Amino acid sequence: MTGASIGAQMFLLNSLEVGGSESKIVAVSNALYQRGLPVHLAYLNPPETLLERLHPDLPRLALQRSGKFDSGVVRRLREYVRRQGVSTIHCINRYPIVYGRLAAPRHPEGGLGLTAFLNSTDLPSTAEQAKMLVYAPLLRSARRVIFGCRQQSAMWARRYRLNADRCGYIYNGVRAERFRPEALSDEQRRLRAELGWREDEVVIGMVGQLRPKKGYPDFIAACAGLRRAGLPVKALIVGDGPERAALERQAKEAGLEDHLIFLGERSDVRPALYAMDVFALTSVKSETFSNAALEAMAMQRPVVLSRLGGAAEMVAEGCSGFLYPVGDVARLMQILRRLVEKPALRRDVGRAARKRVLEHFEFERMVDAYEAVMRNGDEAAAVASRQASLIGSKAQGV
Fold first, then answer.
1. Which fold has domain 181-360?
2. What is residue 123's predicted lDDT score, i.e. its pLDDT?
3. Is 43 helix (H, G, I), strand (E, B) or coil?
4. Is 296 strand, coil or helix?
């Protein structure tokens, strides 16, 4: 993307802990910096696991926050913004906007040089919802609020009385060239055989942290039900978290002990995706636009998603993926059974899934939208929203 030069831009995160939002912003920051944009990155406190992934020359600021609110962070952030000529602070998720609001420079055309990027669809607890009494006015003061999908943008604007004209959304994107079956080495392709699964067995897999919001009990119940129906199903879970012991007990009680493998965390999930025949995402809350699902689609795997967040914007139902009502295990089983019994359907839907990623959810397309927001402020954010709306309007036509 070309255009006039811009002032320095800063992404402000809570931490550099490995997570969906944090990993995405590090990757986007690197890409924008390599395009020649004056990008800076600041984070409030440890952990900083992702620091090694940051481009070595990209300016960064560790603010070393202490306590619930640290006035020293505001002072250090203001000084850095002034010294580096930062024109806009882009706050990632809710808490950084508290500091961003206090340190943001004045915009040349009036108002604050402040945008907010929000990725949470639903707030998980009463306490988190109560905090919106503080956050909602801060969001209303931002020049733009950018969400992860159209559904989230509309919901937040309505619920928290945000100015819809200042709201936009940018879909996640994945590097489709990296996530393709042909990109794997012969060694990486052997995971399925190493796990002892036959070619005639159908592997249903899921990737994500083992937390209640992901709905793994529904995944286990569906796979167990298919096994009881006599179908040659194996199950694979990639990820780790506090629910692992409970999920292992559930799998054993459901008779899946010899048919479900917990693979744990993997720095490279591609071999696991390659080993799967079907990808499922059974989230029951707070799922906006799953990167794991996009990676599976890019890997040419059919996906079955709970109808949550932007899932209906991600796939063209029945063509590049399938949706089911949140928590409806019977419907989930019905869709999975159809895919297990019809190899040709798995192949066709997988191909359509990758085609959809290539056309709409490629990483560079996402970076283009971020760059548009940075280059042209309000106008470019509106352009990014219109691009996203075009994607959403084609959801039934891939």
1. Rossmann fold (3.40.50)
2. 75
3. strand
4. helix
